[in-house]
């Protein structure tokens, strides 16, 4: 059989098996294999890693598209200098996911706009401060907590743009009474 015929058949099989990334990269992968001369098993491993990686990237991309996030943010994009209260080493460690295998939780606390999802006041959520304290005690027992402090991103942007350069005067008690 000719090389062209086998090549066409391999491409057809790759497409039929929905291994489109391998079909697209077949020539470069074959050229690299010819140059590096891997074992058969290493070559198959490299092919499968390529396809699995491509499918994983596509799955993540589709998930982000479907979620309609207003902006895509990654850990690499987080400005640790703008939030010095955040322990960068702890965050990077948590990003490994090791806490999951240890059956531990991660809780983020802080005011709105400092880089975490806003959390409500627990007592008002549960309608009972004692119940809230018991639940939080149980939750915090095996948890890593990150307290994020500082100005919100929006406040920093307004200060940077000069929109908050002067302080807003507070109403005096006599002025407040006059308004009533």
Strand content: 5-15%
Largest sheet: 2 strands, parallel
Which architecture of the largest domain per CATH?
3-Layer(aba) Sandwich
The Rg value, from CA coordinates, equals 27 Å
* Top-tier CATH class of the largest domain: Alpha Beta
Count the DSSP helices: 9
Order of helices and strands: HHHHHEHHEHH
How many strand units? 2
Per the CATH scheme, the topology name of the largest domain is Rossmann fold
Alpha carbon gap, first and last residue: 95 Å
Care to describe what's here?
- Residues 14-120 form the IstB-like ATP-binding domain.
- Keywords: ATP-binding, Nucleotide-binding.
- Pfam families: IstB_IS21.
- GO terms for molecular function: ATP binding.
- A two-stranded parallel sheet has the order 1-2.
- Helix 1 (3-16) crosses helix 2 (20-36) and helix 2 packs antiparallel against helix 3.
- It has helices spanning 3-16, 20-36, 40-67, 88-95, 98-101, 122-126, 129-141, 153-160, 173-179, and strands spanning 105-109, 143-147.
- It has nine helices and two strands; from the N terminus they run H-H-H-H-H-E-H-H-E-H-H.
- It has two domains: 3-67, no CATH class; 77-160, Rossmann fold.
- With 180 residues, it is mainly α.
